[in-house]
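This follows on from our talk about sequence and fold. Please put the record directly below this note.
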Amino acid sequence: MKIKNCISALAIAIILCSCGNDEKLIEGDWIEIEKEFPYVEKNIFSFAGKTVHIQNFNFEYEYHNKRIRKGEFEIKGEDLVLRFGEESDTLEIKFDESGQPELSNNGIESFLRKIEHFKTNRQREFLNTILTESIFKFSDDTVRYEFSEGGKFYTDAIGRDFPTGQIWNIEEFKGELFLVIGYGFGPMMQLMSVDRDTIQLKFYSSENQKWKLHKVSRKHVIDPSLLTGEWVKEIKDEFDAEEILYISDSLLIKKTEDKTEEQRWILSKIGNVIVTMNPWKGERKPQWNLKRVTENELQIVRNLNVGLGEIEAVKFKKKK
């Protein structure tokens, strides 16, 4: 009887010890990365003692008052139990051989990566100034990026991971700055350092985690006044649809056989991208890149269906 009691006590001690070790393993600050869609998740978990602090950087988060949540946690076997007042969430948690935690929440698999601390929060204003006054490209990329003062993100690439028209912002967590792009679908990159010409970022979803944004010179900027007027599409063959554009200094009206679309537009600082104003939050409009603009000819490249990679080159002649 004493032996059985002893074994039971030992088993309980082992379980308690295991839980304590797990809580120690998970202590600290972590960024959550969804395995299937690594750009989607923007959660940071901070575990200390028995408390948990979760911050969400999704601009369109369904419950805005839950962008920052504080509560308690405990690990029960393979469950991570999070409590926020009267609410509670239970996630399955596993630790790999190196002690890295992985989460499963209603079938969605994600992993946590430990956040490094660079203490860059004092550079927030400087970072914002550098971003908004310049055009950038990543180290080995030819695509150019613009971070406008209005919080919009533009690129001269079509069909890339970071689409034109998304919003961007600088977020802060415990003295760390994060550059966040998109309505929940763009990347979240942590600032490592910034100077007048280079911004070094850490992107936890990538195997090559250190990314650099380099300032680049602007190409020839198109005179927007050349765009104003009435333009008629050149018809390539009998299957090509007719299209007329009416462009003023702020409105673009696209007229086809079956419908008429009207939207506001601006010319990006990059210099060759027409940026349309989205009437609904999160709606992605087709991007138009200007290839050639003269008094009588307009050549563009545009995507027909956002996200599907269908691109066409079109020529217009100015109606006299």
Q: What stands out?
A: DSSP finds two helices and 24 strands in the chain. The radius of gyration is 26 Å. The longest helix spans residues 2-26.
